[in-house]
């Protein structure tokens, strides 16, 4: 298939009795930042290892740039893997670490050094070339691992939770940097994460995994605004589902419906209904002041519970406490309610 960096067909992998990957069909486009998202044990790392060639599929086919690589060894595939622990050589300098792949390919020394320095500059580590990994911070080691990956100009870069070892603030910064870097170099990234916020922030498209299968593949907006299953609705973003009696009374419909917390306004119980709006009355069970926003947990009179997230435009922390136990009316646009098929 044209323009596809990676293509998986009927991919299946078992380890003894465990079915790690259970029939996955997937195509990653050239130059795409593609994330595989799912809870622990859902099979995303195994899919990554299958693409890299560290595992052999039980069934199915793997193509890289249109070529069948299912039976090829890792070094015969035009991919590079960045692991969470970075796997840097501790006894080598930063420059030597980055140049290593070029040395293996017998690139002459001056050219190796030139390319290694260029790659280090790309990840903003000029001047660090003679240090050893132990003399770097976690974020800097992460950058060295990236420089080492980029220097070989692989067609596809496979990244397994590369930001997992970083603290929250550095992680957010690296998310932006990594995304910018990917745009600059134009290499296809296949990125494994269990962090939905990270996947939403960085990806062109996301594949959501559950128990070795794909639940949904789509852009961050599609995954978030139009979850295809109740699992996706709950795993990506705050689970906010109306079902059964509550769905019938509030929406006049059967089935399971998802509405995102930030779409819901918290109003006085006596507020008037507006055309096109869904409203539901209830009692505030809990309020959480988050600084920039406030989260309300509301027990609905129709049954069930919804979370509403309000920006703190004029609200202060003191106002927030007064809401606990208060009677409120929740309101949102009907078009923000998405019906989702129930769990399989
Ligand atoms: P995590 O986020 O925790 O890394 P994951 O979604 O990447 O999880 P995998 O590591 O792909 O999940 O594992 C999928 C399933 O396959 C799990 O049940 C796991 O225990 C099993 N598994 C993975 N590798 C092996 C192995 N080498 N031997 C036996 N079972 C394995």
Automatic annotation (TrEMBL):
Gene3D superfamilies from the UniProt entry: 2.40.50.100, P-loop containing nucleotide triphosphate hydrolases (3.40.50.300)
Alphabetical list of Pfam families matching this protein: ABC_tran (PF00005), TOBE_2 (PF08402)
Entry-linked PROSITE patterns: ABC_TRANSPORTER_1, ABC_TRANSPORTER_2
Domain ABC transporter: from-to ranges: 6-236
GO molecular function: ATP binding
Keyword tags: ATP-binding, Nucleotide-binding, Transport
Transmembrane segments: none
Protein name: ABC transporter ATP-binding protein
High-level lineage: Bacteria, Bacillati, Actinomycetota, Actinomycetes, Kitasatosporales
């Amino acid at each position: 298939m044209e323009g596809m960096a990676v293509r998986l067909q009927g991919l299946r992998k078992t380890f003894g009795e465990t079915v790690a990957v259970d029939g996955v069909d997937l195509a990653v486009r050239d130059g795409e930042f593609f994330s595989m998202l799912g809870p622990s044990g859902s099979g995303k790392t195994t899919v990554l290892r299958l693409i890299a060639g560290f595992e052999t599929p039980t069934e199915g086919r793997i193509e890289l740039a249109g070529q069948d690589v299912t039976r090829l060894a890792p070094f015969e595939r035009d991919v590079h893997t960045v692991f969470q622990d970075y796997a840097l050589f501790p006894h080598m300098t930063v420059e030597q670490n980055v140049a290593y792949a070029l040395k293996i390919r017998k690139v002459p020394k001056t050219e190796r050094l030139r390319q290694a320095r260029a790659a280090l500059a790309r990840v903003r580590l000029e001047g660090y070339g003679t240090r050893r990994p132990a003399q770097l911070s976690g974020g800097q080691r992460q950058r060295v691992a990236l420089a080492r990956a980029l220097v070989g100009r692989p067609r596809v870069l496979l990244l397994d939770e590369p930001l997992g070892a970083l603290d929250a603030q550095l992680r957010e910064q690296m998310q932006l940097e990594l995304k910018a870097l990917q745009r600059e170099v134009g290499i296809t990234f296949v990125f494994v994460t269990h962090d939905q916020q990270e996947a939403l922030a960085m990806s062109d498209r996301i594949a959501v995994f559950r128990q070795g299968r794909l639940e949904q593949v789509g852009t961050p907006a599609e995954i978030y605004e139009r979850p295809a299953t109740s699992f996706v609705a709950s795993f990506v973003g705050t689970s906010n589902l109306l079902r059964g009696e509550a769905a019938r009374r509030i929406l006049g419909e059967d089935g399971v419906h998802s509405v995102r917390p930030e779409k819901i306004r918290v109003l006085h119980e006596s507020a008037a209904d507006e055309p096109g709006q869904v409203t539901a009355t209830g009692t505030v069970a809990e309020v959480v002041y988050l600084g920039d926003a406030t989260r309300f947990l509301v027990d609905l009179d129709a049954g069930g519970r919804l979370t509403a997230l309000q920006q703190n435009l004029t609200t202060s922390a003191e106002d927030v406490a007064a809401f606990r136990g208060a009677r409120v009316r929740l309101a949102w646009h009907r078009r923000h309610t998405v019906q989702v098929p129930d769990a399989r």
